[in-house]
Amino acid sequence: MNAEAIVEQIRKRAVRLDSSDDLDVMVRAIGDADLVLLGEASHGTSEFYMLRAELSKRLIREKGFSFIAVEGDWPSCYALNRYIKGYDGAAETPRDALRDFNRWPTWMWANREVTDLAEWLQEYNGQTGEEGRKVGFYGLDVYSLWESMDEIVRHLEKTGARELEAAKEAFACFDPYSRDPQTYGVSAAFLSEGCEEEVLQLLRELQAKRKRDDRDSEAALSDELNALVAVNAERYYRSMVRGGNDSWNVRDRHMVEALHRITTFHGTGAKAIVWEHNTHIGDARATDMAAEDMVNVGQLVREQYGMDRVYAVGFGTNRGTVIAAREWGGAIERMTVPIARTDSWEDLMHRANEYDQMLLFDRDNEAFDQVVGHRAIGVVYHPERERGNYVPSRMARRYDAFVYVEESNAVDPLVQEILHV
Fold first, then answer.
1. What is the residue-level pLDDT of the chain in tens, covering all 421 positions?
2. Distance between CA atoms of 413 and 324, rounded to whole angstroms?
3. What HEC string does 110-131 produce?
4. Residue 103 contacts residue 72 (beta carbons within 8 Å)
């Protein structure tokens, strides 16, 4: 790797980022793209949320984007969607709406930064007037199997729909596993005691219901998406216990399918903003994931919609603090993010310019086609063992642009469970 050549090209091409006004360059570069993918190098960095929020506001106001879809569960995100659209019976405040994000890692969406965005979205929707033009907020993830089943049964009972019997049958199939994904996965994968046919039948019935009489109903869309979650969560947990990369691919394919269904619901000309980790929105083919036969959202949407219709933005930082935990389901901490490793992408950005900056990639620039380690921090993080957190990447192939924060700060969770401040 020729590090100095990369540093020189960054110095030449980077745009200083001091305020939201500087995002003009990015908005212009996005142009007529229909899908804008906004990443993050961690799930607990305030600047990533705030910059994505500012960019999303610009895209909604100036380019008519229809909704934001995030790496979150459909049921909890739909509760926030109901709040920002002012539905009857919705939560009265964004903090109340965010109470539905009660499954670990809660801080990913139940935080001050998302609260501020939700308030802005509700105010914006209140000014648009037309119901069909209100901006939505949806979850694309696959983890909420039981929560999604709960929502389907609850809504079908309320409306007296004839599909209730299929929903109860599917729910009953999962009931013996005490809402434990591991227990279900073992039974389905190794004992042939899965619920695949039950959830597929439920999805078919809810799809038919929406096509028949609820085509324009967002509540019917919610039932359908919850059923889709159940179908793919069943596959995810079954593949997870077998090991390998199948579960990753099931998850990212689900997120793309959910995104497609939401976009279709919003009609011709709908435009989507997606918030997910860099590992999901940055094209997998430009990383070592490709050698492991792994795909991701960034790759799949580029393949399905075309390069010109998709604009992917990666995010990263040189140093700072972050919210994470030391084990899955563990207590959360405010941790120190160490200075980026020498010759990593973040280190090269720092060496080029010691300030916040944006870089719009030219795919023909050989300097940006070199393989460079690019930091990825998950919800489970050990700063002292960070060496394995760097993903080999061809940055100009992985993203269309990159946003760099010199020194970042931890996100502000609504539930203060911080052990080390």
1. 899 999 999 999 999 999 989 999 999 999 999 999 999 999 999 999 999 999 999 999 999 999 999 999 999 999 999 999 999 999 999 999 999 998 899 999 999 999 999 999 999 999 976 666 899 999 999 999 899 999 999 888 888 888 888 988 988 988 888 888 888 888 887 777 788 888 899 899 988 888 877 767 898 999 999 999 999 999 999 888 888 889 999 999 999 999 999 999 999 999 999 999 999 999 999 999 999 999 999 999 999 999 999 999 999 999 999 999 999 999 999 999 999 999 999 999 999 999 999 999 988 899 999 999 999 999 999 999 998 899 999 999 999 999 999 999 999 999 754 444 3
2. 11
3. CEHHHHHHHHHHHHHHHHHCCH
4. no
What DSSP designation does 289 have? T
Of 70, 23, 67, 33, nearest to 280 by C-alpha is 70
215 burial via Cβ count (<10 Å: 0-12, 13-18, 19+):
exposed
Q: pLDDT tens digits, residue range 210-247? A: 887 776 789 899 999 999 999 999 999 988 888 888 99
Do the Cβ atoms of 408 and 317 come closer than 8 Å?
A: yes
Single out the residue of 228, 257, 262 nearest to residue 151, CA to CA. 228
Q: What CA–CA distance (Å, rounded) separates 240 from 191?
A: 15
In the CATH hierarchy, which top-level class contains the domain 1-58+309-421? Answer: alpha beta
CB atoms within 10 A of CB 257: 16
Q: Distance between CA atoms of 282 and 47, rounded to whole angstroms?
A: 19
Q: Which residues contact 388 (CB under 8 A, 6 or more apart)?
A: none
Which string of b and e fits 181-201 if b means at least 16 CB within 10 Å? beebbbbbbeeeebbeebbeb
The 10s digit of each residue's pLDDT in 239-265 is 888 888 899 999 999 999 999 999 999
Which tokens is 403 given? Answer: 């946003």
Residues 6+ apart with CB under 8 A from 316: 41, 278, 345, 346, 349, 374, 375, 402, 403, 404, 405
CA dihedral 299, 75, 207, 304 (to 10 degrees): -10
What's CA 77's distance to the chain center, in Å?
11
Contact 163, 202 (CB under 8 A): yes
For the chain, give every residue range classified as CATH 3.40.1660.10: 1-58+309-421
Distances (CA, A) of 318 to 145, 339, 407: 37, 6, 6
